[in-house]
Design goal:
homodimer, 28% strand, alpha+beta, six-stranded mixed β-sheet, 60s Ribosomal Protein L30, Chain: A, globular, 2 domains, Phosphoribosyl-aminoimidazole Synthetase, Chain A, domain 2, 6 helices
């Protein structure tokens, strides 16, 4: 069973909208209407042995990454992040000095985006290190960029090339805010792989998304770049005028038709993929 | 180094109040002012091998407990809970059927308190099972019951006897709301042990708290009941009239003097304790 299947099963009876909850399970953030604002909330985790190995870097780096991946969800909604909370689980014999390094990296990244650490929780004597991060941000009511807002005729864009440094991701906060202000209302961050993430958009919006391989700027082999997770560039879909400088050209189009994502090579031939992207197996 | 010392070190430069953050690190919940409401946010975790062993119960029970301990923080502030999020970390070879049981217990408890699951996250292949729960609630602006609001002359009360069933805790939501409406502005839930939790209140309010042992209703030996964590009754401090039926009589008084908590036996003799309560050691 995959993570996606399990989540689908577990949440089949949970309402997606309820009272002032405008968007619940199934998007990058929950959206809660409070007066003229929509509050955005998201959770993300960074677990030793699952998301990283100690030998890949240092604790300061993992702290920064834990904050960045959580803030990336706020960026994907076009939000301005404000507060963060961290629930730290420390393994047995974990050095307080390493907790301090993690914390320093975490908090330094928050400061870059003017986010305040508003609280947290610590437990120890666990088997592995884990940080569960909750972030809160806001957008003017009704302006969050949702997975369900893609429409036939829209075009697909990326906020940067695929295949960047997954150890030091940067949340595209400023770009997200700019896109929202320009009128864009559909976006996702590439955390599970471009194809899988755009498939989420296709399902939520009930549309077909066609990508043109040669228009996608990427590092490394194409198929790997399209299915690799932890990229954290924004994939956004809009019918507004081309977003102009600073963004690459359209990489695809949205249409009616069979819900899902397809990729054409420069000869117009359909590419096949053994998997769409990363999925935890249970 | 203990959890308390580590948190104190890590958060020494983090502002407790900033813009619309009215209460940050150091209380049961963060308090964020949004118009006429104060939004309450809290995180809590339930980790296999740290907080429970599988042999103690079943997954439905752990699901209910994970939700209850998080909601207890909202109760301690006098809040009305509204939304919850859960970040699940599943170990290798974890049965999807057990994840479903956990989830069923978790969601059933939420429903009892009319709380909606607004989102979450799942990762697998970790070494131990962990659930990190984020809850959100609200109170009218300025009415949250804070640790820092105890005043000389106030009396101390408990919302129930100490030493209850720690496997099946119940968040005292209705009692918390009632206390807030009655004008109570200082409360904490007994999650780390009564003495340790009241010590948090004494430090935050810069007061001395004196307890009278014979007035404290409890199950099991007194010293154990006073220092045992995971109780989740509410300890509240108020100068208003005795809260009346449904609550036990005052168990202590607040005064000026040396900041901290002391317990007198029925002869007026000071009781000594080797520790105040539960603290994770790092």
């Amino acid at each position: 069973m995959t993570e996606t299947e399990l989540i689908r099963y577990l949440t089949r009876n949970i309402p997606r909208r309820f009272r002032n909850l405008k968007t619940g399970i199934g998007d990058d953030c929950s959206v809660i209407r409070l007066g003229k604002k929509d509050i955005l909330i998201s959770l993300d985790s960074l677990i030793e042995g699952v998301h990283f190995k100690r030998s890949w870097g240092d604790w300061k780096m993992w702290g920064a990454k834990a904050a960045a991946v959580a803030l990336s969800d706020i960026a994907a909604m076009g939000g301005t992040p404000q507060f963060a909370w961290v629930d730290l689980t420390l393994p047995k014999k974990f050095k307080p000095a390493d907790a301090k390094k993690f914390y320093f990296g975490f908090n330094s990244l928050l400061k870059k985006y003017k986010v305040i650490l508003a609280g947290g929780n610590v437990a120890s004597n666990a088997k592995n290190f884990a940080a569960s991060v909750t972030v809160m941000g806001e957008v003017p009511a009704g302006q969050a960029m949702l997975r369900s807002n893609a429409k036939p005729g829209d075009k697909v864009y990326l906020s940067g090339p695929l295949g960047g440094d997954f150890l030091r991701p940067k949340p595209h906060i400023k770009i997200g805010e700019k896109l929202r202000k320009m009128g864009c209302r559909c976006c996702i961050d590439v955390s599970d792989g471009l194809l899988k993430d755009l498939n989420h958009v296709a399902l939520a919006s009930k549309v077909k998304i066609r990508l043109f391989a040669e228009k996608i700027s990427h590092q490394g082999p194409l198929k790997k770049a399209l299915t690799r997770g932890e990229d954290y560039v924004l994939a956004f879909i809009t019918g507004c005028q081309a977003p102009g400088e600073g963004f690459c050209k359209a990489i695809g189009v949205v249409s009616k038709g069979k819900v899902g994502v397809e990729v054409l090579d420069k000869k117009g031939k359909l590419l096949s993929f053994s998997k769409l992207g990363f999925d935890h197996t249970i």
